[in-house]
Amino acid sequence: MMKYLMFVSIFSMLILAGCGLETKTLPQFYEKDLETVNKVVIVDGSNGNKKTITDPPVIEEFLNRISDVKFIPEKNQDKRVGWRYSITLFQKGEDPFQFTLTEVNENYYYTEPAIYPIVDEIYKDLKVKVEPL
User: Fold this and answer.
1) Domain boundaries, the chain
2) What is the tens place of the pLDDT at every residue in 52-80?
3) What CATH number should be reported for the domain whose range is 22-132?
C-alpha cells in the first residue's frame, strides 16, 4: 500500500510539473508575426466602450509598447469575473487573438512592468471614435 501511495504521489507531481505555466511575452503567446496585425480593438471593461485602431503606425507603436511586457503566471488560477481592458488583435484571414491585461488563453497572469498604465495611457490618448459595445 505504501508503494502505491508513493507512486501516485510521484506521478501526480510529474503531471502537475508538466502542466506548469511559463512566463511569456505577447509575441510568445501570439505565435504569429505581430507586424501583420492590421486592426486592434481595445475594450474598456469599466464602461464597455471600445476603440478600434486601423492606422498601421499607431498599431505598430501600440504593439511595440506592450510586446516586452512579461506575463507571469499567478499561483491562484481560480476563475475570476471582470477585467479592465480587453485587447483583440486581427489579421486578414486569421482568427482574432483576444486577451485581457490579466488573462491569456484562460490562464491568469500579473505583468512586469505593469501593463495597465501602458494600455490605459494609450487608450485615453487614442484619437479615434469611441464606440459603444
Assistant:
1) 22-132
2) 999 999 999 999 999 999 999 999 999 99
3) 2.60.40
